[in-house]
Amino acid sequence: MPRTVLVTGGNRGIGLAIAQRFAKQGDRVAVTHRGSDVPAGLYGVRCDITDPAQVDAAFDQIEAELGPVEVLVANAGITADTLLLRMSEEQFSSVLETNLAGSWRCAKRAAKKMLRARWGRMIFISSVAGLSGNPGQTNYAASKAGLVGLARSITRELGSRNITANVVAPGMIETDMTAELPQARRDQLLGEIPGGRFAQVDEVAAAVGFLASDEAGYITGAVLPVDGGLGMGH
Ligand code: NDP
């Protein structure tokens, strides 16, 4: 059955691959963007997820055009890496505000209609860094670990209403975000990944697609790593 799907930050990178996967299977797919073009076949809605009013307006617009959001993929995220002693209040709070509070805000807004429909899927895009930590990413890792507590609390609150909330924790994926890594760090990471390579965005999209499916209805509060074994044991 076609669903209405919202992928935050679905205009590029991992989010775009996720959005295109849903679109290919016939779903009605909305993506947020902050002024960029949106590829054909996706419904673009302008929204900065740090602004509650914009989130509310984006959902109103999607509901009017595509119907209530049945699958939420909270994917939008940023980094502002630096070591703990050098990290500013702004670097910490901006990352938490986008990655964690922005996801919470979208989940809260989506939950209203999911509760009414007694069906919903929420998938939060975390990171291996949120599970095992990473030097230079105290802000980012804290925000991504927070998504696990968020998803699991939603599971406990809404699980009986046929709403699932899961976390996907990608490792190293080929995107703009990882293209910024210095070569030495890239080589070091490659040595630590049992799979011996970075992943393609479609490999994350496949995991998200599965968690959103009817077949995954009994999987909730789970953390699914897509990391080539990088974070094993966490
Ligand atoms: P990109 O940097 O390629 O894209 C980030 C996306 O988030 C963009 O669409 C961007 O929109 C959007 N975004 C950022 N801030 C906001 C905001 N305030 N409001 C709305 N949208 C916003 O990231 P990736 O595709 O690499 O990553 C996607 C997710 O996966 C992130 O949550 C990231 O933390 C996570 N992840 C990525 C990994 C990787 O290896 N790449 C590994 C593990 C996790 P805009 O185009 O307007 O800037």
UniProtKB/TrEMBL annotation:
InterPro entries: KR_dom (IPR057326), NAD(P)-bd_dom_sf (IPR036291), SDR_fam (IPR002347). It comes from the Bacteria. Residues 3-176 form the Ketoreductase domain. One of its GO terms (biological process) is fatty acid elongation. GO terms for molecular function: oxidoreductase activity, acting on the CH-OH group of donors, NAD or NADP as acceptor. It holds the Pfam family adh_short_C2. The keyword Oxidoreductase applies. Keywords: Oxidoreductase. Belongs to the short-chain dehydrogenases/reductases (SDR) family. This is Beta-ketoacyl-ACP reductase. The gene is fabG_2.
